[in-house]
Design brief:
Blueprint (H helix, E strand, L loop, with lengths): L2 H28 L6 H11 L2 E2 H8 L3 H13 L3 E5 L7 E5 L1 H24 L3 H25 L3
Antiparallel strand pairs: 1-3, 2-3
Helix pairs in contact: 3-4
GO molecular function: DNA binding; DNA-binding transcription factor activity
Pfam families: MarR_2
Keywords: DNA-binding, Transcription, Transcription regulation
Length: 151
């Protein structure tokens, strides 16, 4: 592939990432949360309940930062702390999916609708290319993250 095309794609990818950060920062503020806190709720929705240590490992945040994060979520009724039945020293973080969705669904409604409309404008073959790109890009990002984290 020509270097001009690769440069264009790389710049578009960077712009997509920057624009995504801006949008998610704005959504977080609208939801009354700082920065990209709400993206960490996505981990809890996707993976389900977990300990603060597990959330720290998953996000790369320090345990102190995760404690503050959980405090903010708990104040908004988005998560609940619960002692583990087998070990009361261990605290489980349980997402309140209903509250999380009620808070964020209206903020994402138009974006989701327009994104679905955009995807519907592509052929099945084009959708496969997009899907392949994202799947492989995610693998590369995970490899990079793991390598930088010495995993």
């Amino acid at each position: 592939m020509e270097s001009e095309v690769l440069t264009r794609i790389r710049k578009l990818s960077q712009q997509y990432a920057y624009t995504s950060i801006q949008m998610h920062e704005t959504i977080a503020r609208q939801a009354g949360l700082p920065g990209t806190d709400h993206k960490y709720l996505g981990f809890l929705i996707q993976k389900g309940e977990m300990t603060a240590g597990e959330l720290s490992n998953l996000t790369g945040l320090t345990t102190g930062a995760v404690t503050g994060l959980i405090d903010r979520f708990e104040k908004k009724g988005l998560v609940k702390r619960q002692f583990a039945e087998d070990d009361r020293r261990k605290v489980i973080i349980k997402p309140n999916t209903e509250s999380i969705m009620a808070l964020f669904a209206p903020l994402y409604k138009e974006f989701r609708s327009k994104s679905q409309e955009l995807l519907a404008s592509f052929s099945n073959k084009e959708i496969k290319v997009i899907e392949t790109y994202f799947s492989k890009a995610i693998e590369i990002m995970n490899e990079t993250t793991n390598k930088l984290n010495n995993k």
